[in-house]
Amino acid sequence: MAMKTLARIALPLALSASLAGCIRFGAEPPDALLTLTPTAAVAVGATASSADARSITITVPVVPQELAVARVPVRSSETAIAYLKDAQWVEAPNRLFARLLSDTITTRTGRVVLSLRQALSDPGARLGGELRHFGVDATTNEAVVTFDATLTRDGAARNFEKRRFEARVPMTAIDAPSAGIALNAAANQVAGEVADWVGR
């Protein structure tokens, strides 16, 4: 009787142990996640006031479906897209890019960048747009960042300006480390050009 009871207990334990090696809840994360770092970071302790400087509100860019994930798309032709192995952003790329724009515009123009909540009373200028490409072009071995920016300079949403910005940075290899470095450089180039367009 004791042997039968022991067998009834041991069998489920053995099955659960064997299944534990087979079942995975989601894909294993890569060893390191990618992020964007501004080439000109805002200095610690730096203060700015909208009483002394012009303000701007930056909204998170919209993205096509290929960029609605935290992975790095690779275009092998005009109609074929795959995702780079072991390359994953720490958060959605459009949010990373919006934060990079905020830091770059702050340091290069001296403008006060407002949050959407702060902008309810006085939005100043408004910058938004669509992040069209943020990945790798395998046909040219380049990292590509394309941003269709929309700018309202008066904050009253009466007059819009629209401009496309694009940067291409060569890659020595199509892998996660190379993609992270090249996309960071391309994103900083675009952010700098956008800041110059926005102006002081």
Automatic annotation (TrEMBL):
Keywords: Signal. PROSITE patterns: PROKAR_LIPOPROTEIN (PS51257). InterPro entries: ABC_trans_aux. Residues 1-20 form the signal peptide. The keyword Acetylation does not apply. Coiled coil: none annotated. The keyword Signal applies. Residues 35-195 form the ABC-type transport auxiliary lipoprotein component domain. This is ABC transporter. It comes from Sphingomonas turrisvirgatae.
